[in-house]
Specification:
Shape: globular
CATH class: Alpha Beta
CATH topology: 2,3-Dihydroxybiphenyl 1,2-Dioxygenase, domain 1
Oligomer: single chain
Number of domains: 1
Distance between the termini: 34 Å
Number of helices: 3
Number of strands: 10
Radius of gyration: 19 Å
Pfam family, one: Glyoxalase
């Protein structure tokens, strides 16, 4: 069974035009054993110092952003303990500059900046909860 997800609009001529929806972003929601420490780490060490939010008393969820890219964080120690090995990729312009920033901030770099056999240039950091963030040169 194949589903067609289409959006219809009407042109000035009255013709019905159909377009595919556009996905704009994927936002990881990372469970943390210490939400406030994670928020500080992402802001200060990784540079996610743009718009942010925090919810709950005591805090249960937060969001941090950098250059329009969002990461959500949740206070969930049990789930965080089971999320070993979780990883995701972040596409970056001026990758070498960000790599230098992370080195200066003493971020734990587990794989240095290098060109990979599959054709990307990337490096990997490990955050304070053990998540691996792969920063790679944005595809052209």
């Amino acid at each position: 069974m194949r589903l067609a997800f289409l959006r219809s609009t009407q042109s000035q001529d009255g013709d019905v035009m159909t377009a595919l929806p556009t996905i704009k972003a994927v936002v990881p929601f990372l469970p943390c054993s210490d939400l406030l420490a994670a928020r500080i780490y992402y802001r200060e060490a990784l540079g996610f110092s743009g718009l942010d939010w925090i919810w709950g008393e005591p805090p249960m969820a937060a969001g941090v952003s950098r250059d329009g890219v969002w990461l959500f964080l949740s206070q969930d120690p049990d789930l965080a303990a089971r999320m070993t090995g979780f990883r995701f990729y972040i596409d970056v312009e001026n990758l070498e500059s960000l790599y230098e920033q992370h080195q200066v901030a003493s971020v734990k770099i587990v794989h240095p900046l290098e060109e990979k056999p599959w054709g990307t240039t990337e490096y990997t950091v490990e955050d304070i909860h053990g998540y691996h963030l792969h920063f790679r040169r944005a595809p052209e």
